[in-house]
Amino acid sequence: MCKIFEEFGAKVIYADEVAKRIMEEDEKLKRKIKKLFGDEAYIGGKLNRKFISDVIFSDEKKRKVLESIVHPEVIKKIITEFKKISKNENQSFVIVEAALIFESGFDKELDYVVVVDADEELKIKRIMERDNCTREEVLKRMKAQMSQSKKRSLADIVIQNDGDIEALRERVKFLYSLFQKISKPIGEN
C-alpha cells in the first residue's frame, strides 16, 4: 500500500528501515543489543537479522526487552525526519509504515492510523512469498503482535485488502486525495 502512496507523490517513512539503520549505526544501541543477545547479534558490524528474528519470536521476554530499547529510538528518529521534511520538502502529509504502531505507542504521535487487513490465510501466503519464509515463521510473528481485531478497533481507517492490486490502488487513490484535502502543511498547528 505504501509503495502506491509513493507512486501518487506521498512521502513514506518505513519504520522497519529506520529501526534496521539505527540498530547498525547507533553505537550505544548496538552495545545494548549485544548485551541482550551476545556477539552473534552482529556479523561484520551488520545486524544478524536471522539470528535476532529466531530469538525474539521464540523468547517473548527478549522480544519485549529489544522493543523497549529500539522503539523509543525509532520514534525519536521518525519525529526528527518529520521535522526535516517540514523544513525541506513541500509535503502536506507523511505516511509512516509500521507493523507495531499501537504496540510501540507511536499511534499517539500520529493524526490518523490506517490499518490494512486481509483474510488471514491470504495474509500468511503473502508474507511467506514476500519474506521467503515458512508458514510457522509467519504464525510466530503474528502471535507476537497485537490481534488484528484489536488493531481494527483502534484504527481510524481500515482498508480491506483481499482483492487485486488495482482494487488496492483505487482505495489508496481515495485516501491520498482525502489526506491532501484535510491536511495542513506540515509544521502548522
Automatic annotation (TrEMBL):
**Keyword annotations of the record:** ATP-binding, Coenzyme A biosynthesis, Cytoplasm, Kinase, Nucleotide-binding, Transferase
**Record pathway:** Cofactor biosynthesis; coenzyme A biosynthesis; CoA from (R)-pantothenate: step 5/5
> Does Nucleotide-binding appear among the keywords?
yes
A GO molecular function annotation here is: kinase activity
Task: Kindly state which reaction or reactions the protein catalyses.
Answer: 3'-dephospho-CoA + ATP = ADP + CoA + H(+)
**Record flagged with keyword Cytoplasm:** yes
Q: Enumerate the InterPro entries for this protein.
A: Depp_CoAkinase, P-loop_NTPase
One Pfam short name: CoaE
For this protein, the Enzyme Commission number is 2.7.1.24
Q: What class of enzyme is it?
A: transferase
Its localization reads:
Cytoplasm
Q: Can you tell which superkingdom this protein's organism belongs to?
A: Bacteria
Q: Which PANTHER family match?
A: BIFUNCTIONAL COENZYME A SYNTHASE-RELATED (PTHR10695:SF46), DEPHOSPHO-COA KINASE-RELATED (PTHR10695)
The family classification in the record reads: Belongs to the CoaE family.
The record's function comment reads:
Catalyzes the phosphorylation of the 3'-hydroxyl group of dephosphocoenzyme A to form coenzyme A.
Question: What name has this protein been given in UniProt?
Answer: Dephospho-CoA kinase
Q: Which organism is it from?
A: Candidatus Kryptonium thompsonii
